[in-house]
Amino acid sequence: MAKNTTKPIETDILCVGAGVASLSTALALLRGLKAKNCEKLPRVMVIDKGRNVGSHVLSGAVIDMSGFDGLLTADEIRKIPIEARVNGEKESFHMLFNKNCSMKIPWMPPMMQAHGYPVGSLTKLTQYLAGLCEKEGAKVYTGFAATELIEDKAGRIIGARTGEKGLDHEGKPKSNYLSSETIYAKTVVLGEGACGVLTKKLIKNKGLEGDREQSYALGIKEVIEIPADEKRAGEIAHTFGYPADTNTYGGGFIYHVSPAQVMICYVYALDYANPEIDPHLMFRKFKAHPAVAGHIRGGKSVAYGAKVIPEGGYYATPGLAADGALIVGDGAGLVDTLRIKGIHLAAQSGRAAAETLAGCWLNNDFSPDALSAYGARLKKTEGWKQLRRVRNVRAPFSMHLTLGVMCAGTAWATFGAFPFWQVPMEADWKSLHSLPGGILPPAENLEVTPASPDRLTDVFMSGTIHDENQPCHLKIRDRARCAECVKRYGAPCLRFCPAEVYRLEEGHIHIDFSNCLHCKTCQIKDPYQNIEWTFPQGGDGPRYTRM
After folding, report:
1. Which residues fall within 8 angstroms of residue 332, CB to CB, at 6 or more apart?
2. Do 334 and 345 contact (CB within 8 A), yes or no?
3. Quick check: 409 and 437 in contact, CB under 8 A?
4. What is d(CA 433, CA 436) in angstroms, rounded to the nearest whole number?
């Protein structure tokens, strides 16, 4: 590694990740202090590993705007870049029984109703929020991956270090080499999103674990252009059941975000047991179902992406504050898995963090006690109350679909009072069963169409680009254990990866990291916990523009 000779950068608040949570933190902090007529404002910096703001974010997204109450003006809300709002008369909920049969639920569950909510691209929303932050004085920089938190001798977080750029595959500097940057700050706000590398290390090193390990689902999404139909804009549908089995939490959604564009996604819990499961294949089966295919008939896929969603909920929420650091958004597991909503929780966590930091700034006190007020503020928000209400919704689905549906209904009806105990749930990587005989049957051969492309075509549509002459950011810790995994589970990484990063060649796993979508499914689901996801150089990875 080359010696870093650049001068350290100093700021007051450093936000890692340019998602809704970090951007809401920066915006609420600066606006809040201006409203108090604060003479000197903090220096606020937001850095993101994507090439542009929004390059690495992905969501539905039907947006519960309650998270932006008091943060955005009425005029700013009107200018959010969306083309449609949910039409309550065209909301539907379907049970898919098998590949041909389904039933439309005759009523829309109250917790799922979204009439009037904006529906559109999270990429465009974060770009819009970033612009507002910059107008308020925040500095937003992209293409910089924060790869390490910096601590002082007492163990306090005092900043972060970005990764080097321009290293060859052996880790030696190339002609375009750029050294890492050291950024010092009074507080680091971690808004990396689900399964963030720095967030996970902070939680482990500072003993911030929740009551149980975080669990995840993998969401696979495409944007499909269809023949224009003005009447369908704002139409949305949710499904559960097929192609998931009765012991695994899974479902899909179809959102008509404009007259000529549909967002379609299938979400599958990563605590599944069958090692033959291929989420991308399930996604294609989902799109082929008659209840879904009618929404995209005559269409063509134009964008693709995948990400993991934290589903552990209330019991998996970690400690939210450490000495010198706060955790916001998906990194803290703030997703309502019953409503399939997390954007409003991300915004509310950002505002709670901002109010805490404003007090720290005004009192010149960034001590652990001062920062710990963030958790208390967050727990007063409506989003947190919702999270507590559904704290036992997700876990029962791991036992059986029927039990899960029953518990979801009783939890909602009793405001979370029943089940009154913590329903157990094991870590995702522990749930995989051995493959009988270690032999896999041939994969199902589905027809490839413009509306249902194969995996590599999908990866191409994600815009994913990595400089291939750089160190591989996916590490197999022990090749012997890898061989054992191939024998026992039939190389599950070939199937659970939504981007064809892993290939089996002559009995050994080959890694094509240039296809990586940065979803981190491999690190979560690997039954031997033998894969480590590290950072490629900043700016590499997906280049989402409409996700």
Report:
1. 317, 318, 320, 349
2. yes
3. no
4. 9
Strands 531-533 and 474-476: antiparallel
CATH number at residue 55: 3.50.50.60
Residue 395: per-residue pLDDT: 85
Domain that holds residue 35: 9-71+124-212+314-389
Taking the CA atoms of the chain, what radius of gyration do you get in angstroms? 23
pLDDT tens digit string along 362-418? Answer: 999 999 999 999 999 999 999 999 999 989 888 888 888 788 888 877 877 888 778
Report in angstroms the alpha-carbon separations of 386 from 114, 246, 288, 334: 15, 26, 34, 10
CA 389 to chain centre: 22
CA distances from 424 to 315, 358, 410 (A): 10, 38, 17
Q: How many CB atoms lie within 10 A of CB 134?
A: 15
In a domain, 539, yes or no: no
Structure tokens at 493: 């990484």
Determine contact, residues 519/498, Cβ cutoff 8 Å: yes
User: Could you read off the pLDDT of 13-46 as tens digits, one per residue?
Assistant: 999 999 999 999 999 999 999 999 999 999 999 9
Asked if 248 and 301 sit in the same domain, the reply is yes
φ, ψ of residue 28 to 5 degrees: the values are: -65, -35
Contacts of 51 (CB under 8 A, 6+ apart): 142, 143, 539, 540, 541, 543
**pLDDT 10s digits, 181-194:** 999 999 999 999 99
Strand 173-178 with 118-119, pairing: unpaired
Considering the domain architecture, whether residues 263 and 402 belong to the same structural domain is answered as no
Question: Does the pLDDT at position 1 exceed 50?
Answer: no
Task: Clarify whether residues 438 and 330 are in a common domain.
Answer: no
Name the domain count of the chain.
Answer: 4
Instruction: Read off the pLDDT of each residue in 147-160 and give the average, rounded to a whole number.
Output: 98
Report pLDDT digits (tens) over 237-275: 999 999 999 889 899 999 999 999 999 999 999 999 999
Number of other residues whose CB lies within 10 A of the CB of residue 361: 22
The lowest-confidence range among 70-74, 208-212, 245-249, 509-513 is: 245-249
491 contacts: CB under 8 Å, gap ≥ 6:
485, 502, 504, 509
Mean pLDDT, the chain, rounded, equals 94
CB atoms within 10 A of CB 506: 5
AA identity, residue 124:
K
Inside any domain, residue 4: no
Strands 9-10, 182-184: parallel, antiparallel or unpaired by DSSP?
parallel
